[in-house]
Amino acid sequence: MTLAVQNPSSESVTAIAATKLINRLREIVGEEGLLYNAEELLVYECDGYTVEKKVPDVVVFPTSTEQVVAIVKLCNELDVPFIPRGAGTSLAGGTLPIGGGVMITLTRMKRIIEVNLRDRYAVCEPGLVNLHLTNHLKETGFHYAPDPSSQGACTIGGNVATNSGGPHTLKYGVTVNHVLGVEAVMPDGSIAQFGGPCEDGPGYDLTGLFVGSEGTFGICTKVWVRLTRNPESYRTLLGVFETVAAATQAISAIIGAGIVPAALEMMDQGIIGALEAAFHFGFPLDAGAVLLIEVDGLEVAVEDEAVRIEDLCLQHGAREVRRARSAKERLLLWKCRKQAFGAIGRLSPSYCTQDGVVPRTKLPEILEFITDCGKRHGLRIVNVFHAGDGNIHPILLFDERDAEQVQRVLLASDEILTKCLDLGGSVTGEHGIGVEKISFMDKLFAPADLAVMKQLRDVFNPDNRCSPGKMLPTAGGCGTESHTHKSHPGRRAAM
Amino acid sequence: MPNSDSVFHPNTQDELAQFVVTNAASERRPLIPIGGGTTSRKGSAENAVEIHLDQLNRVIDFPARDMTITVEAGIRMADLAKILRAENQRLPIDIPQADQATLGGVIASNWSGPRRYGCGTMRDYVIGISAIDASGQQFKAGGRVVKNVAGYDLCKLLVGSHGTLAIITQVTLKLRPLPESSGFVCLGFDTAREIEPVIDQLQRSATRPIVIDVWNQNFIEGRTIQRTLSPMLYVGYEGSERETLWQIQTLLAECKQFAPRIQETILDSSVKPFLFALTNLSGFSLTKLSGQFANRFKTCLPSSRTMEILQHADPYSGFIVGSHAGNGIVFGHHAGDYRAEEAEALYRPLRELVRSHGGTLIFSDVPSDWKFAETTWANLGPAATWMQRVKQQLDPLNLLKPGCLPVS
Ligand SMILES: Cc1cc2nc3c(=O)[nH]c(=O)nc-3n(C[C@H](O)[C@H](O)[C@H](O)COP(=O)(O)OP(=O)(O)OC[C@H]3O[C@@H](n4cnc5c(N)ncnc54)[C@H](O)[C@@H]3O)c2cc1C
Fold first, then answer.
1. Same domain, A192 and A264
2. Distance from CA of B221 to the nearest CA of A (A)
């Protein structure tokens, strides 16, 4: 048995301390709730953001809030950093254990505690997989609305921490719009409940503040989520366009006409090819882009909306607009969309997804920029994204064994996100700042904005032992480092 | 009102920041931000300066095709609505006295009206915010795009903070298209108890209501709302004309089994005055219309328990009560002039009932000797400690509306 102390001279705990830590953790969760062998820990060296890697000293799998309390108190006692992790699908390095320490993985806390249809809420534990909640509700006529494309794997706790979106959040809103309350083990080891089943509780909306805090305000151990009635009917359309530019014009026209579809997604030629190879749906391989558009609601309403959307697409140069003819075909279309990332394996060994946002009317500009940027850096970039929200997901393809390529990916990513800011947007619509985009925080926000955010972190997490190095840039730092280098602390720590 | 020793009307955000900086460095007088002055939760501070924000009312940017708008916080709600309407858009938050109330005030008090069941509340629409803290530091959070998770979500923290953490100066909102039509079904029953099965049925209805309100009495003259003592259930719909009509007919058919005593539909040009009346009833003007009383309360509890509260507070006992029943929110007051002990005896059973369902009962505008009506941090459980720490951190000198929270 070797301890995964990679670099004792770094911030990682020393071997002796690590042994003590593991022994004490064993008392809390038992041997079956621990991982500390180097080869086992390797799985936890990164999440969906593979550009930076770092293993924790130990991974624990608590099964109750009380265990989480004990773990957090122990970390405080021994002055060891700790970080919560769900399924590890973060695309921003949210679970990178900067400084090593204890990774608290919540996947064994996955019960659905209560479903109350009359009052439209459910209570669940953080490790519950998003899709499992919706599956559990199948026959009830209700669902949980936020549907990240990773919903088959990602956890409700991870969704809460990152304020996840998904294709249908265009109409229904993101995670925070559907979270009524959270229970959390705070960084000092105390338990707090913010919100709950009742709306408009007195005092400040700490639920709203906790959602999206990326694990820096504590460890979520229970969530009250709002349930949404299922729509009666759907119309799912596939608009086929010669060019990306034409497709983006159509998006603008649809939103401008005052139609809010349930979902409005774009896929470009690069991704269509990969999807077709994987799923044989019958996508038009020669199309420049397709729009996946869904309207939902009452049967009396959706047909009219679908017809209006068809007209708008055709007016803006769609070659054709197809309709899903059956529920089965609709599900297949969504399967293709949601597994688009999976299909990328066919295109390249590694990829890096960006998550910028622009005002929806600026989509043509940003997509043009992305194409140019790819050319300039000699990189292949494909696009599949939440177009209705202006939330782009350019996917940069590369081979992570090639350090020079990695460098170009980082540069190109930086340029794309900078352009999003220039266009009045943001660097992240749903994946979070994590470690990946931390160097953008002082481009997005003024020192005073960051100072207030830091004041808030100091309220909840004064020692910064909980998820250190996330969300807020650390002051100072080495002035000689380049912007892209500075932005990747995990890479530094791992090297 | 001109500037004076106790009133300040900034013309620009910078001017306000400067004022607050100077105050923090010298006299440290308490600051009471005021929008339209339509809510009376002012806190209790001596030697305070009222900061009137109504001149900070510029539209900064309205990219209509992006369906967002950035405005200064002092803009009146009615003016904002007019600007949005010109582009066929809206902020679907129902506001009483919209010609007075300002956006910043509505956000700070987290006001909401009947349509919150289908359209949500302010926290669902504020996507960017600028504010000035008690030291005069100007800060912002969020941005101008509809989806954005960069940084902590200070928008959520400031919505409903009643001006106790910072003075909101500028806001970016996400907007919605105006619906083509809307309509209401009004159903009257003998008791509130009979309504719960109807609301329960609404959770399975083929229709998708935007409003589920129940009122036990009202004071509006004229034909916009029925004058009746029996509790009325108001169910609202929006959408294309066909959609609205279909839903109204479908609901009426679904509700036959409950044999309502009164049954009416409100359509076309009657909808606007009706919604206006409903909104104003749930608002401040309730107190005004009924004249003498100023003891408002609000309860938050699971929707399924709302009718128990209405049943308890039936009109014959002197309570005037309304509810956003779909959301579990009940508000009202008691028609009478009470000494503190009498009032306590009157409200104790109500509070116990609310608590037994895990809800909260909060008073506002009560006489100062109604000690039982004060909400203390202790009533709010462990979360209150964190709220206090947030307040302490952002306003260590307690300059912003001292005494306002947790007393509501
Ligand atoms: C193929 C693919 C598609 C994706 N599509 C989408 C999409 O459509 N929309 C979208 O928003 N995201 C998407 N993502 C990103 C990712 O799935 C989401 O961010 C998701 O919410 C992460 O959940 P997780 O359980 O994997 O959390 P993790 O990746 O394990 O953690 C994410 C962050 O949350 C923190 N965290 C986890 N659990 C807790 C807890 N219990 N308490 C406190 N903090 C916690 C972690 O510390 C970390 O900072 C996608 C990812 C992939 C790989």
1. no
2. 31
